[in-house]
Every structure is written in C-alpha cells, then in structure tokens.
From TrEMBL:
Limits of the DNA/RNA non-specific endonuclease/pyrophosphatase/phosphodiesterase domain: 72-272
GO molecular function, one term: nucleic acid binding
Pfam family, one: Endonuclease_NS
Annotated ENPP1-3/EXOG-like endonuclease/phosphodiesterase domain residues: 73-272
Keywords: Endonuclease, Hydrolase, Metal-binding, Nuclease
Record SUPFAM superfamilies: His-Me finger endonucleases
Binding residue positions for Mg(2+): N167
Protein name (record): Endonuclease G
Key word Hydrolase present: yes
Active-site residue numbers: H134
InterPro entries: DNA/RNA_non-sp_Endonuclease_sf (IPR044929), Endo_G_ENPP1-like_dom (IPR001604), ENPP1-3/EXOG-like_nuc-like (IPR020821), His-Me_finger_sf (IPR044925), Non-specific_endonuclease (IPR040255)
Length: 293
C-alpha cells in the first residue's frame, strides 16, 4: 500500500531544503539540475512509453470541463480532473494474459491519491448508490504489472461513479473481453477509456466534489500485422444499461467519442491516417461474435 505523505512532513522537508540552499548556493544549483532532469525524463521518456501516438488534447483549451493533470502510474497513465473528481481519460497497453498468472488478493479499500487536490476518498462513495468503477481494470493491470500496478489501480484518481448494473455486469464483460479476447487476437492492444458528461451537472450526494458521468467510453487500437493499416474500435456505454446487452450494441466511432468528450485522441498520427481511422466503424477485425459465447 502506498503511504501518503502528510502536508506537515512535506512542509518541514521543504523548509529544511530552503535553509540548506540558502547556506550553500551550489546545492541549489544541483537541486535545480536534478529537478529539470527529472522533468525532462518524465515528459520525454516516462510518459510517452505509456501513450500511443501522444497524449489526448482538449479540443477547446478554454473549456475548464476538459482540463486535466497527467498522473503516471505503474502500467497506466491518466488525465485527472480535480474539478470533476474523475479521470477524463486513462490509457494502458494490454498483452495476452498468461494462463498460469496468479491472481492477487483484491484490496479491501480504495486509497486517496496524495497527488489529488480534491482529496476524494473511499468513503466519498459511501451510500451514494454508485459503485467505485475502475477505469484501468484491477484484473488486467494486476496480472500484467503486478502488485504495484494493482495498488495504483485502487487509487481514487482511477475511479469514477458507475451504476451497479453497468459496473458489475456489462463493464466487467468488456474488461474481460479486452484481455481474454482482444489481446490474444492481436498480441498487443492499446486501450483508452473514461467517462462522458452531458446535460445537467449531477454530483454524488455523499461528496459534491465527484461529478456523475452519463456514459463511458473505451477505445482499442492495434496493428493486425506489422506494417499493415491500423484497426480501431470504440464503445460508448450509457449508465442506464440493464447489463445484459450484447457488447456489439455499443460500438461507435472514435470521432463520436471525441465529440462527446471534447478530447482529441491519437493526435500524432498523420492527418490522413487519423481521419480514416477515427471515422470508421468496423467491428469485423475484432470478431465480436465470439464474445457472445
């Protein structure tokens, strides 16, 4: 479990560093150099390794509803909105799950992310009528990225309110399909997922810092074979599902998801490839018929 530093201990540490730097200017230069080096590593190396064709971008930078801060975790990365108390997008890569991979014990509680400003906690959802819905899924992340990945998937910055029939039925089937079916079909699949907000703003009765989404999206993108054209598929699932619907019912285009979220995905693709890929609705390569079995 990740230990959260207290504000007092952080203040004490910063005050001590300030005093040292005041007495030893050379130390200040060293700290600044390490800081710039760490930032360059984060932006140029660590984050790109977890992103496919660049980080998502807001279509309208003036719209505060699409503002986010990027948080990097073990095995996945996300854009978190402190204003909405939700991750706006979460991205991770899946490979085929080995049959003999042991399942880790599921944590009993979710943890407040020390990096969050709004301090959303496990108890924020208490008696709200909504489940704590994983965006980066516990099963896939824990199997592919171990205990550290699982611990990060239980941070509240990876969680969003989902109705029980969605979270425990249809969404769970989609999470199972992506690692048991899609990843085995292609070898490696990139996943981008998150909530969709539309209409009147509604927040949890148990914590006004958490906005309730109207729907959720998942996008999958991969190469059928190296050097061949990319294939992608999108799903847009409303909160109001009964949970028993076929997954194929919710297939949509990436263009539609971008219009619903106000975010631009895979912006580093060349314009012609991006336009064709994001406009297409082609479930055939994904063999969705097998999921009904």
């Amino acid at each position: 479990m990740r230990r959260k530093p207290s504000p007092l201990s952080l203040f004490t540490l910063l005050l001590g560093l300030f005093r040292l730097c005041f007495r030893h200017p050379v130390l200040l230069l060293i700290i600044l150099g390490l800081g710039f080096g760490g930032y360059a590593y984060e932006v140029k190396i660590a984050r790109p390794a977890l992103l496919y064709q660049g980080e998502p971008q807001a279509l309208d930078g003036k719209n505060s509803d699409t503002w986010f801060r990027i948080l990097r975790n073990h095995g996945f990365i996300l854009g978190y909105s402190d204003l909405r108390g939700n991750p706006l997008w979460v991205e991770y890569a899946l490979t085929a799950d080995a049959e003999n991979t042991p399942s880790l014990k599921r944590p009993s509680r979710f943890e407040t992310d020390w990096r969050s400003i709004n301090r959303v906690s496990h108890d924020s959802y208490q008696k709200s009528g909504y489940d704590r819905g994983h965006m980066a899924p516990n099963y896939a992340i824990s199997h592919l990225y171990g205990g550290a990945g699982q611990a990060d998937s239980f941070l509240m910055t990876n969680i969003t309110p989902q109705k029980p029939k969605l979270n425990q039925q249809l969404w769970q089937r989609l999470e199972e399909a992506e690692i048991k079916h899609f990843a085995k079909l292609f070898g490696k699949v990139w996943v981008v997922t998150g909530p969709v907000f539309s209409g009147t703003v509604e927040r949890l009765s148990s914590d006004w810092m958490v906005e309730i989404p109207d729907a959720f999206y998942k996008m999958y993108i991969t190469e059928v074979n190296p050097g061949e054209p990319l294939v992608a598929i999108g799903f847009l699932v409303p909160q109001t599902v009964s949970g028993k619907e076929p997954l194929a019912q919710f297939v949509t285009s990436i263009d539609n998801i971008e219009a619903q979220t106000g975010l631009d995905f895979f912006a580093q693709l060349d314009d012609r490839t991006e336009a064709a890929l994001e406009a297409a609705i082609d479930p055939l390569p994904w063999n969705l018929q097998a999921l009904g079995k």
